[in-house]
C-alpha cells in the first residue's frame, strides 16, 4: 500500500510539473513575436516586458519560500498563485498599449515566478533519491513545454494573443488541482527569528567562496539565456523558418534525453564539470545561431536549438540540486526562493535589458535585424562565464 501511495504522489507531482511548464511554454516563447509583429513594440520595450520575471524574482519567490518554510503549506501557496495568476494573465491578453500591458504582466509574474521554487521544494520534500527522482519528475515539465510549443505552432498562434489565454485557463485549472495535493506543512526551525536565520545559517553559506562563485556565475549566465527566451522565436520567423515555435520544441525534446541521463553524468563528472559544460554550451549555441541560416546551413540553427537540453539541465537542474545539498532541511524553500531571487532577479533583469538594448541597436530602419552581430554578444559572454567558473569554483574544498 505504501508503494502505491508513493507512486500516486509521484504521478501528482509529475502532473504539476507538466502543467506548470505547459503554462510557461504557452506564452513565454511566442509573446515577443506577437509584441514585435502585431503590437509593434520596440526591442527595448520587449526587453523591459521580459524583465518582468526578474523584477518579480526580487519580490515574490524569497517571501513565498519563507512563508512555505514557516507558516503556510507549500501546496496551498502554489495553488493560490496559479489561480490568481491565471486570472490576471487572461486580462493581460486583451491589452494592446505598452503602458497598460507592462504593469499588468508584471503583476502576473509576481504570482507566477514563485511557483517554480515552490514546486521544486515540494518535490525535494517528498522524494527519497533527489538526483534520480527529481529528474524523473522534472522531465514531465519538459514534456509540458514541448506540448505547448507544438500546439501553438500547429494552431498558427505565434503572431496572436491566444497563447496567453491558453496559459491563463491552464493556470487556473492547475491552481485548483494543486489544492488537492498531499499537505506539505512548514518545516519548523529552532530559530524562529528571520534575522537570526539570515545572520547565522544563510549568512554562513554566503561566507563560503564556492557558494558565492556559484551564485555569481549562475546570475551572469542568465544574461545570454535572456537572449534565447526573448528573441530566438522572432529571429527564426524573420529569417523564414516555418512553424518556429514547434521547431524550438526540439530543444525541449533533447532536454528529456539529457535529464534522464543526468544522474549517470552527475555521478561521473561531479558538480563543477557539469556546470562548466552547461555554461559553455550557453555561449556556444549563439555562435551557431550567428553563422547558421536558411537553406544549406539550417542544420546549424537546429543544432543550436538541440543543445538546449545541455544548457538547461547542466545549469538550472544542477544548480537546484547543489542548492538543496548545501542548506539545512528547514531552509530548502527559502534557499530555492533565494536562488530564483538572484538568478531570475538580477540575472534575468540584466539579461533582458541588455538583450533588448542590443536588439534595438542593431535594428534597421526597415524593421529587420543584424542577427549575426546580435548573437555574437551573448555567445562570447557565455563562454567567458564558463571560463570564470572553471577557474574559481572549487566546491570540494569546503
State the share of residues found in helices, binned by percent.
Answer: over 70%
CATH architecture: Up-down Bundle
**Count of spatially separate domains:** 1
Q: What's the pLDDT, averaged over the residues?
A: 83
Instruction: Please identify the oligomeric state.
Output: single chain
Please state the overall shape, judged from the principal axes of the Cα atoms: globular
Strand content: under 5%
User: What is the succession of H and E elements?
Assistant: HHHHHHHHHHHHHHHHHHH
How big is the Rg? 20 Å
Report, as a whole number of angstroms, the end-to-end distance: 42 Å
Q: Any idea what the CATH superfamily is called?
A: MFS general substrate transporter like domains
Q: Please identify the top-level CATH class.
A: Mainly Alpha
The poorly predicted ranges are 189-194
Q: Structural class of the secondary structure composition?
A: mainly alpha
Task: Classify the fold: give the CATH topology.
Answer: Growth Hormone, Chain: A
Could you give the count of β-strands? 0
How many individual helices?
A: 19
Tell me the major beta sheet.
none
Write structural notes for this entry.
- Mean pLDDT is 83; it is low at 189-194.
- The chain has 19 helices and no strands.
- It has a single domain (9-180, 201-397), classed as MFS general substrate transporter like domains (Growth Hormone, Chain: A).
- 80% of the residues lie in helices and 0% in strands.
- The N and C termini lie far apart (42 Å).
- With 398 residues, it is mainly alpha-helical.
- It has helices at residues 2-27, 31-37, 43-50, 52-59, 61-70, 74-92, 98-112, 114-126, 130-154, 162-178, 194-206, 209-220, 222-238, 244-260, 262-291, 298-306, 308-326, 332-361, 371-392.
Amino acid at each position: 500500500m505504501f508503494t502505491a501511495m508513493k507512486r500516486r504522489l509521484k504521478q501528482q507531482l509529475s502532473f504539476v510539473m507538466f502543467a506548470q511548464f505547459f503554462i510557461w511554454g504557452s506564452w513565454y516563447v511566442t509573446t515577443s513575436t506577437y509584441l514585435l509583429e502585431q503590437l509593434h513594440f520596440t526591442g527595448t520595450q520587449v526587453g523591459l516586458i521580459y524583465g518582468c520575471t526578474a523584477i518579480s524574482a526580487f519580490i515574490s519567490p524569497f517571501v513565498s519560500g519563507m512563508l512555505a518554510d514557516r507558516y503556510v503549506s507549500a501546496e496551498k501557496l502554489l495553488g493560490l498563485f496559479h489561480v490568481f495568476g491565471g486570472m490576471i494573465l487572461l486580462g493581460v491578453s486583451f491589452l494592446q498599449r505598452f503602458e497598460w500591458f507592462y504593469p499588468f504582466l508584471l503583476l502576473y509574474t509576481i504570482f507566477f515566478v514563485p511557483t517554480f521554487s515552490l514546486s521544486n521544494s515540494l518535490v525535494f520534500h517528498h522524494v527519497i533519491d533527489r538526483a534520480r527522482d527529481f529528474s524523473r519528475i522534472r522531465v514531465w515539465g519538459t514534456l509540458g513545454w514541448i506540448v505547448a510549443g507544438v500546439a501553438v505552432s500547429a494552431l498558427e498562434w505565434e503572431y496572436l494573443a491566444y497563447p496567453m489565454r491558453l496559459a491563463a485557463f491552464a493556470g487556473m485549472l492547475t491552481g485548483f488541482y494543486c489544492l488537492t495535493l498531499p499537505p506539505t506543512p512548514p518545516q519548523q526551525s529552532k530559530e524562529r527569528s528571520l534575522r537570526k536565520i539570515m545572520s547565522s545559517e544563510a549568512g554562513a553559506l554566503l561566507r563560503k567562496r564556492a557558494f558565492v562563485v556559484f551564485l555569481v556565475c549562475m546570475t551572469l549566465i542568465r544574461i545570454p539565456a535572456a537572449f534565447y527566451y526573448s528573441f530566438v522565436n522572432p529571429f527564426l520567423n524573420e529569417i523564414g523558418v516555418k512553424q518556429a515555435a514547434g521547431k524550438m520544441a526540439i530543444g525541449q525534446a533533447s532536454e528529456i534525453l539529457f535529464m534522464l541521463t543526468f544522474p549517470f553524468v552527475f555521478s561521473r563528472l561531479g558538480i563543477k564539470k557539469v556546470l562548466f559544460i552547461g555554461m559553455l554550451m550557453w555561449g556556444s549555441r549563439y555562435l551557431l545561431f550567428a553563422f547558421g541560416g536558411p537553406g544549406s546551413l539550417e542544420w546549424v540553427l537546429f543544432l543550436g536549438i538541440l543543445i538546449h537540453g545541455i544548457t538547461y539541465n547542466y545549469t538550472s537542474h544542477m544548480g537546484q540540486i547543489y542548492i538543496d545539498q548545501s542548506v539545512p532541511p528547514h531552509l530548502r524553500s527559502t534557499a530555492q526562493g533565494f536562488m530564483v531571487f538572484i538568478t531570475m532577479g538580477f540575472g534575468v533583469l540584466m539579461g533582458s535589458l541588455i538583450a533588448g538594448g542590443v536588439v534595438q541597436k542593431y535594428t534597421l530602419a526597415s524593421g529587420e535585424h543584424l542577427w549575426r552581430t546580435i548573437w555574437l554578444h551573448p555567445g562570447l559572454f557565455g563562454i567567458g562565464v564558463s571560463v570564470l567558473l572553471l577557474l574559481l569554483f572549487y566546491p570540494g574544498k569546503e
